[in-house]
Amino acid sequence: MPHFPEGFIWGTSTSSFQIEGAWDKGGKGPSIWDAFCRIPGRVHQGDTGEIACDHYHRYPEDIARMAEMGLKHYRFSISWPRIQPDGKGKPNPEGIRFYSELIDRLLAHGITPWVTLYHWDLPLALQMEDDGWLNPDIATYFRRYAEICFEAFGDRVKHWITLNEPWVVAILGYGQGTFAPGRISNREPYVVGHHLLRAHAEAVDCYRTQFQARQGGRIGITNNADWREPLTDSAEDKAAAERALEFFLGWFADPVYRGDYPAVMRERLGERLPTFSEAEKVKLTGSSDFFGLNHYTTSYAAQAQPGDDLYAGIYGNGGLSEDQAVKLSADPTWEKTSMGWTIVPWGCRKLLQWIDARYGRPEIIITENGCAFDDVVEDGAVHDQRRIDFARGYISACHEAIAAGVNLSGYFLWSFMDNFEWASGYSKRFGLHHVDFATGTRTPKDSAHWYARVIRENGW
Ligand code: GAL
Questions:
Q1: Scanning 18, 53, 365, 459, which has its CA 20 to 30 A from the CA of 239?
Q2: Is 141 a member of any domain?
Q3: Is 65 exposed, middle or buried (0-12, 13-18, 19+ CB in 10 A)?
Q4: Parent domain of 32
Q5: pLDDT tens digits for 259-268?
Q6: Residue of the nearest CA to atom 10 in ligand 1?
């Protein structure tokens, strides 16, 4: 493994709904994912987050495992309905206490907390009574929720992420309907995306005006993006790949770094794409102290031709492809994970370079990268060589990007342990630790030992 610059941040990531369980304990209100899981057919085999990894009760032992690995940075999310059961009311003291103890224990083990405020588990009441992210008022509710968190935890938390992957919330939640709240529309995703961005800007404004000077932390947003490689050298395919990236990542990163949506989205979407007021543009511009990036896979992009089935691609993750007129495909020689996602490390390097160029060399932190494979436990071990190969390939690509001048300062592997993988339930395993969901037993995989060595060999 090549040596990384001094101070490079190595971590792992999780999220509240995926690991905590205790869905109705400690005064927590239900979230849209609690409800979504109970709709027949929405989640693989009817799996729910009722217990998940039971991290809510077992966090001391999980943190001990992190310490054993020599982990120094850990990204987790706060469940909004644990803090405000209905999304608006007074803070729930038991919820505050849970995260407070989690944070204290991490710090006591020398592990720095990186906290995401929203990783998709919206309080159900906000969905039912207020139409969730479709309602412009949600920016105000989110600001208040964020304020409660800064107030309660900001003395100890110095790394904040407002939103995890707004693209997924908008496209999978309101466009394709495969994630909560399960709506299908070609208009709503752009409205939802708009209010997610407004909410992000409000939370950042709250932090910067009320807390940042005294607490001394940093705050940013995490976006997800695949790489889009032009299928051929034709000008049309090159333009298609560029357009696909702007619809994917530019949608959420342009407003934050350049004050407005990409021109190509405006041209193609017309009135379906809402507009920001001047005051909103001001709040959005520069509203991230670092560029949080979740990256998993790559596909080819080509100019769509009449009659193309745009959703017959590799895993249908192109967004609303008809709005982009982009046809995705995969090279048959590319290996795939058990999600069906292609393994293309050089796509990671190219994406990092694209971000570097488009946004003026921002500090980038990969807040998620990883892979799912079907693991086998043999004599108390999991020999997941493919996961090691995947991580080695992508981490090497990160190193190449740094060598080429990209300002990448951290890498978080998804995930610390196997967990609830959204619509796939417990059927997909991304973790460095194997979890037996019937008994709760955790078993470190070979990849956990390997990653511990990467951290150790880089010396911090
Ligand atoms: C991301 C998401 C994570 C995790 C991962 C693997 O999109 O933020 O929660 O599920 O994908 O699918």
A1: 365
A2: yes
A3: middle
A4: 9-226+335-457
A5: 999 999 999 9
A6: 421
